[in-house]
């Protein structure tokens, strides 16, 4: 039985031992490895960068000047299979501090040996070359331990006798002297050069002003020409734009007219359909009910007509029956009256003048009633006359005129009747 072990990219896993007494070793970086229980041994070694600060104090240079040098080195364990195996042989089981201590001592030894071969000026003035030399000398030794020097730089160089400070002051004085001489010469040359430059500047300025005037004149001419051309092009463009706009407007208007025509056609179609729908609706809601109502009224009228006809026929039949009955009655009455008249006529004929006289006498009261009818509504009659005999004369005159009136009305002459002759005579 065993287990699968994993390791990150900043570590290396070493599995040693195996089945059947095998002494093979397995190195895994950022991966996994299989380890057998009880017979396999697993160890890890860090692959992270280690920062070292080698320091050499009071080391004499080639000139015998004691200086102190401090550097900064970046190292790490190499991951190539063979070099990793070497590093594991050297440092497996040790802590990172132990590895740093071994490498630091190696770097400080090489740094000390190199300082003894160089002068202070070489170390101080060319630090990069000094650091490169240290890397080149120390790299093979640390490489044989499976360690790689990634970088090495000189951090600080100083001494306790102020040698570097004095060297700096001398150098600074020399530099200052050279600087002052240089400044004086520069100012002299600058004055001469300035005068020459002013003369050249004036010449150049004159030429420049002349050329500027010419250029300005040409520029104005070119601008006038360009403006004319631009204005012409603008005018042409404006005319072309207006023409094109007019054409586009005309197209738009034509399209609007076509759209209006199409819309009008659609409206006409819709109106026709609406008319058809309205006609159908009127037929359904008005005409059909009206026809039904007309048919109903016609039937009712025919029924009423038939009723009136039947009623009229019944009335006619009734009237006819009544007329026949009345005619029969009238005929009977007429026959009776005729018989009565015939009998009266026979009686009148038999009696002659006496009958006529009787008829007149029978009619006189009726005549007198008709004549006296207006007088019946009279409360009082006053006859204005101065004499009493005059009233009597008036009455006699009225009685004398009565036979004439009766003769005019009936054709009977009352004067021929003896009784009436006596009544109407003056003496009577």
Please tell me about this protein's structure.
The protein has 428 residues and is an alpha+beta fold. It has eight helices and nine strands. The longest helix has 189 residues. The model has no long low-confidence stretch (mean pLDDT 75). Heterooligomeric complex.
Task: Give the structure's gist in a few sentences.
It is found in: Membrane; Endosome. This protein has helices at residues 81-91, 96-115, 120-125, 127-143, 163-351, 353-376, 388-410, 418-424; strands at residues 2-6, 11-16, 25-29, 32-36, 41-46, 50-52, 55-60, 66-77, 147-158.
Q: List segments where confidence is low: pLDDT < 50 over at least 5 consecutive residues.
A: none
- Gyration radius from CA atoms, angstroms: 85 Å
The proportion of strand residues reads 5-15%
Which word captures the global form?
Answer: elongated
Oligomeric grouping of the chains: single chain
Instruction: Give the beta-strand count.
Output: 9
C-alpha termini separation: 198 Å
Note the total helix count.
8
Helix/strand order: EEEEEEEEHHHHEHHHH
Mean of residue pLDDT values: 75
* Secondary structural class: alpha+beta
State the major sheet.
Answer: 4 strands, antiparallel
Query: Which range best describes the helical content: under 10%, 10-25%, 25-40%, 40-55%, 55-70% or over 70%?
Result: 55-70%
GO molecular function, one term: protease binding
Domain Band: 87-269
Subunit structure: Heterooligomeric complex.
Family: Belongs to the band 7/mec-2 family. Flotillin subfamily.
């Amino acid at each position: 039985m065993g287990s699968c072990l994993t390791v990150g990219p900043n570590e290396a896993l070493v599995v040693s031992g195996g089945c059947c007494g095998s002494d093979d070793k397995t190195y895994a970086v950022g991966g996994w490895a299989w380890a057998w229980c009880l017979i396999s041994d697993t160890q890890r070694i860090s692959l992270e960068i280690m920062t070292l600060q080698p320091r050499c104090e009071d080391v004499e240079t080639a000139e015998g000047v004691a200086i102190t040098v401090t550097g900064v080195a970046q190292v790490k364990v190499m991951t190539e299979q063979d070099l990793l195996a070497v590093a594991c042989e050297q440092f497996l089981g040790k802590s990172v501090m132990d590895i740093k201590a071994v490498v630091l001592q190696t770097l400080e030894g090489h740094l000390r040996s190199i300082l003894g071969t160089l002068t202070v000026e070489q170390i101080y003035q060319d630090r990069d070359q000094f650091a490169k030399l240290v890397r080149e000398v120390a790299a093979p030794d640390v490489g044989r331990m499976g360690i790689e020097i990634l970088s090495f730089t000189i951090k600080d160089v100083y001494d306790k006798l102020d040698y570097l400070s004095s060297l700096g002051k001398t150098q600074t004085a020399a530099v200052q002297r050279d600087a002052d001489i240089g400044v004086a010469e520069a100012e002299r040359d600058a004055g001469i050069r300035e005068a020459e430059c002013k003369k050249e500047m004036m010449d150049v300025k004159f030429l420049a002003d002349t050329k500027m005037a010419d250029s300005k004149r040409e520029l104005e001419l070119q601008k006038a020409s360009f403006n004319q051309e631009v204005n012409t092009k603008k005018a042409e463009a404006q005319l072309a734009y207006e023409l094109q706009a007019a054409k586009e407007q005309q197209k738009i208007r034509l399209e609007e007219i076509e759209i209006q025509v199409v819309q009008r056609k659609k409206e006409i179609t819709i109106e026709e359909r609406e008319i058809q729908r309205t006609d159908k609706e009127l037929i359904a809601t008005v005409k059909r009910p009206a026809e039904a109502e007309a048919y109903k009224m016609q039937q009712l009228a025919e029924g009423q007509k038939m009723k009136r006809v039947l009623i009229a026929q019944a009335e006619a039949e009734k009237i006819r029956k009544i007329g026949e009955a009345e005619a029969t009655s009238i005929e009977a009455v007429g026959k009776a009256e005729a018989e009565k008249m015939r009998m009266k006529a026979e009686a009148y004929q038999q009696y002659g003048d006496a009958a006529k006289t009787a008829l007149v006498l029978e009619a006189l009261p009726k005549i007198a009633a008709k004549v006296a009818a207006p007088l019946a509504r009279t409360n009082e009659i006053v006859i204005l006359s101065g004499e009493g005999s005059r009233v009597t004369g008036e009455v006699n005159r009225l009685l004398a005129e009565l036979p004439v009136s009766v003769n005019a009305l009936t054709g009977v002459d009352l004067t021929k009747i003896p009784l009436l002759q006596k009544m109407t005579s003056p003496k009577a």
